[in-house]
Structures are given as C-alpha cells and as structure tokens.
UniProtKB/TrEMBL annotation:
Sequence intervals crossing the membrane: 38-58, 64-82, 103-124, 151-173, 209-227
Any one GO biological process: monoatomic ion transmembrane transport
Keyword hit for DNA-binding: no
Record has Iron-sulfur as a keyword: no
Keywords: Ion channel, Ion transport, Membrane, Transmembrane, Transmembrane helix, Transport
Pfam families given in the database record: Ion_trans_2
Protein name, UniProt field: Voltage-gated potassium channel
Signal peptide: none
Potassium channel domain segment(s): 159-231
C-alpha cells in the first residue's frame, strides 16, 4: 500500500519569508525617509513605555494598569519578533545586553504581579535605549559624536539610577516608618542622591544605612560625570591609526600620545 503523496511546499510561501525579512531589515536599519519615520515611531513608543514604568507604582491599583501592561507586552512581543527577523545575525543579537534588558522587561510585563518586586528594573530600558546605536542613528544623527551625545548619555545614566533606586527603596521599605508610598521613596532618593539629607525620611536598620551610603556615593559620581560633560573641553572620537588613542581635540592635527599625523573628518564644506 503506497503512502499518500506529501503536498509540495508553496513556492510563494518560500519566497515570502525572505521578502518580509528584507523589508523589516530596511525599516530597522535603512536610511530612507520611511525607515526614519518607522524608527521614530518605535522610539516614541519606547518613551511611552518608559513613562509607564516610572509611573507604574502609582497606577498599580487603578483599573487601567493591567490593560496598559498587557498592551505594552503585546507591543514589545511584536517589536522583539520583528527585530529578530530583521537582524542578519540572530545569535549575535541575542548576546547583546540591550536584548537581555528587553527580554527581562517583557517577562515583567507578561507576569506583572509575580515579578512586581523586580519591576523597578524596567527603567533600565531608558539606559539601554539612550546608549543604543538605534537611537543615535535615528534621533541623534545630528548630535552623534558631539558634546550633546555625552550630555544626554550622562543625564540618562543619572535618571536611570534615580528611578531604579526609587523603585528599590519603595519595594524594599514600603509601608515601613517614613516610606508610606512611592512619592516618599522618590523624595528620599533625591534628598540622599543630592547629599541634601533633610533627615525627615530615613531608612531603618543597618541595611537602610547601606542603601543610603550607596545612593550618596553613586549620586556624587553621576553628578560629577554630568558636570564634566558640560564643562570640560569636548573631545572627538577618532582612533589613532598608530597607537589607537580614541579621543582627540576637535582641531587636532597630531596625536597627543604618539605624534602621528591625523586625518579627522568633519562636516565643513
């Protein structure tokens, strides 16, 4: 008895998959106006998502919290799937720290109550977005490799740390003496981060003092970094062909380290 003949694969279906991948690659990495508009829309959605992460503790008890949470989970699922299809090296894409951040955020959106104690780490997406080439190739093309890039990155580092620490304080010390809500946690974090230390809200116990010390030290470091980017002379990134030094004065002709002649490109006519 002969087995029934297996249906032949649809040639149109086999050709459709590469076309979809090529189209997604053009949208995520292309230089056309349509690609630029698409990436601007993706970045706008990212900022809406980050705003929801920051306001999440305030919205948790509202009726719209779960609706927005699962809606963003669906959006992020589509975005991650599209990025995986658009990339030419899926393994390399999966090894990127930014991909790990996105996958972690996706898990906290899928399980908002089980992973609520880790939800404050969602704000790290702000750091990963601002430090991604996707952002600078789209929004920051005019400011890439300028002083503004360093300033924006420093501000993103400061804001990310601020809201991560606020979420950690709120999750760890909520409903203890002094921390009755998210706003109290934010107030304490800002007062400690700036080393103002009003003392009206303090964290109890040895663990609370350790958190305060870490917040103060990190705050000083981040503020100093921001001040350096604002006031120190701007250095352009250009690798010296001889010694590999990557930062030089904007008008540098020779490398300060080895003296080799540089040929730093600029946008002047």
């Amino acid at each position: 008895m002969t087995s029934p003949a297996q249906p032949l694969p649809d040639p149109d279906q086999r050709r459709r998959a590469p076309r979809i991948r090529a189209r997604l690659h053009e949208l995520y990495y292309g230089r056309s106006d349509r690609s630029l508009r698409f990436r601007l829309a993706v970045i706008a959605i990212d900022f809406v998502m980050i705003a929801f992460f920051i306001a999440g503790p305030l919205l948790r008890d509202t009726p719209v919290f779960l609706f927005i949470d699962y809606l963003l989970a669906l959006v992020l699922t589509v975005d991650l799937s599209a990025r995986a299809l658009a990339t030419t090296n899926v393994i390399g894409w999966l090894k990127r720290p930014t991909t790990w951040v996105d996958l972690f955020v996706w898990l906290t959106l899928i399980f908002p109550f089980w992973l609520f104690n880790l939800a404050f780490l969602r704000v790290i997406r702000l750091w990963s977005l601002i430090h991604s080439e996707f952002f600078w190739d789209t929004v920051g093309r005019r400011y890439d490799e300028t002083r503004w890039e360093d300033v924006i990155r420093a501000v993103a580092n400061l804001l990310t740390f601020l809201f991560v620490m606020t979420g950690f304080v709120y999750t760890s010390f909520a409903r203890t003496e002094g921390i009755s809500g998210y706003i109290d946690a934010l107030y304490f974090t800002i007062a400690t981060l700036t080393t103002t230390g009003f003392g009206d809200i303090t964290l109890p116990g040895t663990w609370g003092r350790v958190i305060s010390i870490v917040t103060m030290l990190a705050g000083i470091t981040l503020f100093v970094r921001l001040a350096q980017t604002l006031f120190r002379p701007h250095k352009i990134r250009f690798a010296c062909p001889s010694c590999g030094l990557r930062r030089h004065d904007v008008d540098a002709v020779h490398c300060k380290a080895c003296g080799v002649l540089l040929n730093i490109p600029n946008d002047e006519e």
